[in-house]
Amino acid sequence: MRTVAVVLAGGVGQRAGLGMPKQLARIAGRTIIEHTVAAFEAAPEVDEIVVLMAAGHTDEAARLVAGFPKVSQVIEGGASRTETTWRALSALGTQECRVLLHDAVRPFVEPRVIADCVAALETSAAVMVAVPTSDTIVVTGGDLVRDIPDRAPLRRVQTPQCFLLSVVREAYTRALADPAFASRPATDDCGVVLRYLPDVPIRVVAGSEHNMKVTHPVDFHIAEKLFQVTASVPSASPETLRQVLSGRRLVVFGDPRLGGLAAEHGALASCLTVPVSDAAAVREALAEAAEAGPIDAVVLGAGTETYAEPEAGPSDGGHVGASTEADPGQAEAGSAPDVVIAGHLGALHVAEAALPYLRDTHGQLLLHAPAPTGAAGVSAAAAVAALTRFLAEEWSGHGVRVNCVTGTARTSLDVLACGGTGLVIGSG
Length: 428
Ligand SMILES: Nc1ccn([C@@H]2O[C@H](COP(=O)(O)OP(=O)(O)OP(=O)(O)O)[C@@H](O)[C@H]2O)c(=O)n1
Ligand SMILES: C[C@](O)(CO)[C@H](O)COP(=O)(O)O
Known about the structure:
alpha/beta, Spore Coat Polysaccharide Biosynthesis Protein SpsA, Chain A, Rossmann fold, 2 domains, seven-stranded mixed beta sheet, six-stranded parallel beta sheet, 15 helices, 20% strand, elongated, binds cytidine-5'-triphosphate, binds the ligand C[C@](O)(CO)[C@H](O)COP(=O)(O)O
């Protein structure tokens, strides 16, 4: 039986107050709806994704999700969440399937939650995701407290809410035929099943505190921070790496290991050993590399391993390897530590020089952040992370992705292959 994830993005986001649907707001360089669709695209249990989008924004949604092969339809949503769900159910045809109804504005849904939901559908026709409440919940009447229910069995409800199609469709058919439903609509899909098919048990799967719903203005700040601390990339398979890298031209400043590893997967990698603290030298080197053909990715290498040599004393802030700085003594004695000069300034120089080439190929810039050790390392790493997020946002208009990594050459390849932007992997 196929499993279809339905991403409900039909709302207008009134409470968020952006003046546009909040699912189109960017967090960590990507719209919320893209993050959410990406979560289901990556879930092996999901075969197909159907997107329901607010009226007037379906073309934009279709453009945003065009790169996700599992997306089969982008449909206009309804005036209420219930109506949007009904449109989705109507679009799914008559053949039985598993349906995962998910709020587009819950972009942090975790692989474990999706897997648990699909597994629970093996034995239950209706599945809800929920977490215990850490607040005391009260029942009010006017401005008075009427009751304080026992907190232990209370749960806060999340999505996805998952069903066999025939079951959820029957519940909605009954609800829409009931004149009382319009005056007291359900706030979630399990509520429709509970009210109209009370004999169908609804299984509860443990949700996650990360699976927040972006609803109010403050949630954008929380979500941005959550993306920063939870960012990770899956380990790409050799087939994926070959698919992504084969025939692609990579220019790597420093880090010959990364260039070599990329070449093993079919990339055409050029490793440049120019001093990245010299903006003109970086520009010239890239111009020369571009003579050989379009550039798909530019990497500022020489990260962790080069900066965090154990023998580097705190006085010099770590040294920059010869692979990045042809002449490590280039940075003037007594000036900023090399880790700042090559790590931060080098990132600025490489980014500035790379944009014209990456714009042409809709390519990717990958910056290696210095290891966040010592005052110089910590501040340089933070600067490169902030630069990454800023450029990811700014360059998304050019179709150029920007990511940052502190880690091994292999992790860098995973980041190059992951399709994300604005990611800071391996440090905050
Ligand atoms: N007519 C609607 C209303 C809501 N939703 C979706 O249901 C999810 C949860 O709804 P909510 O947070 O209330 O989103 P909005 O309706 O956009 O927000 P608001 O109520 O503040 O306007 C969102 O992904 C939203 O896009 C939908 O598909 N169709
Ligand atoms: C479905 C839901 O996310 C479960 O908590 C919630 O009920 C949606 O409510 P909203 O008012 O449409 O955001």
